Amino acid sequence: AQRVTQPEKLLSVFKGAPVELKCNYSYSGSPELFWYVQYSRQRLQLLLRHISRESIKGFTADLNKGETSFHLKKPFAQEEDSAMYYCALRAASGSRLTFGEGTQLTVNP
Amino acid sequence: DTGVSQDPRHKITKRGQNVTFRCDPISEHNRLYWYRQTLGQGPEFLTYFQNEAQLEKSRLLSDRFSAERPKGSFSTLEIQRTEQGDSAMYLCASSFDLTGNTEAFFGQGTRLTVV
Question: What does the pLDDT read at residue A109?
Answer without folding.
Answer: 95
